[in-house]
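S1.2 Input.
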Amino acid sequence: MRKTFTTLILGAISLVVASQVHALNITAMDSAGNLTHSLLGSGISISNIQYNGANNASGYFTNGYESGIGIDSGIVLTTGSAANLNGTSNTADDTTTANYLGGNEMLNHLINNGIYSNSTYDATTLEFDFVTQNLKYNS
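S1.3 Output.
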């Protein structure tokens, strides 16, 4: 009887926890400028925006708090497809999208230790300059 009761309690806890996990919402990138502006917000002058990567490799996310990542909204830059992130963080280890693009030279330098020659692939980068329009920045 005690074992059955413990199993029922654990099962009920599992259902409560599972019902509180919400999916991360991903929206495809529409432009590098909008991606950058959504990251920094208002009161910022942005210039020299440079995006390198596949269009499907980046986007916007919402519902982060409910998904358990600790940030409610922001941008994603991936080496695959941002659409693969829809859902929870419990994606399969073999989820992949090859964009057939080159890597990043700075990252290649970082991972090469003089013994092995490693390369990165499908790099996605977003670079920009920014200046606050006020002396104090409030996000």
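S1.4 Remarks. The first helix runs from residue 2 to 20.
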